[in-house]
Amino acid sequence: MKDIIKKIILALGLFALEDPNELPVCIVGAGPAGLTTAAELELKGRRTVTFDKQDAVGGKCQAVYQDGGFSPLGALIFTPPTYRESIKMIVETGMASVPFISGDKYQYNTTSGEIWPKSAPPPGFTPLFMQEVGRYIDWWNKDLYLHNTAANYRHGIPEELTVTTAAWLARNKYTVLQVLFIQTMVAYGYGDYRQVPIIYMLQYLTPDVTMALLKVQQGTEVHIADFHKVLSRYADKSISGPIYLSTSIAKIDRSGNHPMITYHSLRESNPRIRAQACSAVVLAFPPTLSALQYAGLDLTEDEREVFAPVGTHSFYSAAVQMKTPHAMTFGAASSHPMLPPDPTGEPVVVVKLHKDLEIAITSSWGPYRGNLTKAQAYPRLKNTLSKLNKDPRNVTSVAVLITDADILAFQENDYFPHFDEEQLAMGFYKKFEDLQGTRNTYYASGFNKFELVEYAIRAGQDVVRTYF
Predict the structure, then answer these.
(1) Which domain holds residue 329?
(2) 377 in a domain, yes or no?
């Protein structure tokens, strides 16, 4: 009778029956952290099943391809030694980097559309700025190096590094270094330096990344990578377990001896409900309370306490056909050089990476913990870019209207999951680490350390090597 029931259940496709001793580890999220987790687990002889709601692996690292070139919607710059694991992955997948030299810099007013060349710094600024960069790098190498090499905050965060970036810079008597932090945080979606704790930005602005970003500002050659293709090749080469894309998870039930994931395909017009029994679950996406609830996770009170304060930024990236010159960089102006632009959802950076492509990539960001929607950000993108869509060097050129057909991709991200100053001071990362393994559930994403491809890879490695 049991055999008949099993056959009926399998025929209906309700769930995959597994030997409890051979159940796979189920990974939710096929970005850098999820793919690394799957590959590391399989190296240990564990079976894996990976789920993702997108139709391609890579998480936030997606790209638009045209005429042999790529326009990234996510990560692009990498430098040694900070990106040590990323570089290993690039080498293993046989991907070549692409040189990029930043061209002329322009600023624009998002309201009026006025465009003007970025002005030279005032007299005396550059020597003072480079002096502060040197002092910062010396301090980083001496006092922060060990904090950066770890893949997590398991051993705590020094109290002086839990304050906001603005407060830390002021306490350490930096008077112009703020410019580097502001420009970096705005361009790459890391928010307002008056809100974001310094510990996070110290993970990003390592000495080598700092120097690479200065090269971009100075128009010196740097190298960029097609991280979407890198991750796609990595998945094909290193993971044998199934990866279910375009998949919606309805529930993650942890009430029994083994977690059970109920899911269906988004590609089916009449989707069948399926279920997968798991030996453990690794959640490889930003663990905000809303995202965990959306995945149907039956949260404990401890989990609610830890994840309720996790905040993200509304961050949008786009690939748009434009008539602006190659390598010319446009940045949104702010009301003061020491302040970021207002987070209204307008594009804050626009640049063409490839001389053979008429595609510009853009970054837009909204208010922290705000409710800006993709539907609201999209027309703001079109409106602002329509004012910029010309060659500003030609005083007679007229901006050309951006149409829906020009916007080849517009990606919304729950970006940069992190705690605020209050939670860091209260030791919330210790509480987070204590949750690892609870009810056979583990967490691996940029949240473990910092929202960056490199740290997402390290998070996947760390979770597997520590707990499996």
Answers:
(1) 102-220+312-418
(2) yes
